[in-house]
Write a structure and sequence with these properties.
The protein is α+β, with helices and mostly antiparallel strands and 93 residues long. It folds into two domains: 40 residues, no CATH class; 51 residues, Irregular (HU Protein, Chain A), CATH 4.10.520.10. The chain is built from three helices and five strands. This is Integration host factor subunit alpha. Keywords: DNA recombination, DNA-binding, Transcription, Transcription regulation, Translation regulation.
Length: 93
């Protein structure tokens, strides 16, 4: 099962003394802060959870899977995530 943004808002609303609209604002603002930081090519480190990083991918040769034709994939940036050791331990225990 996938945890959605709406479910996160609901959990915050239930577990903290925030009205639902305030819980929504908190979640939306947190996501915006993370997006802005990544747009500025800065990493986002959340202790005990993990680190989001922006990586540069260089131009490379690829193939269209539908037609089999070769093509060049342009350079681009991708976001990667590396979980913390604490999170990894919790997942594997």
């Amino acid at each position: 099962m996938t945890l959605t943004k709406a479910q996160i808002v609901e959990i915050i609303h239930e577990e903290l003394p925030f009205p639902k609209n305030k819980s929504t604002e908190v979640v939306e603002e947190l996501i915006e802060i993370i997006k802005r930081t990544l747009e500025n090519n800065e990493d986002v480190l959340i202790s005990g959870f993990g680190k989001f990083c922006v990586k540069n991918k260089r131009e490379r040769r690829g193939r269209n899977p539908a037609t089999g034709n070769d093509l060049i994939l342009s350079q681009r940036k991708v976001v990667t995530f590396k979980c913390s050791g604490k999170l990894r331990e919790k997942i594997n225990s």
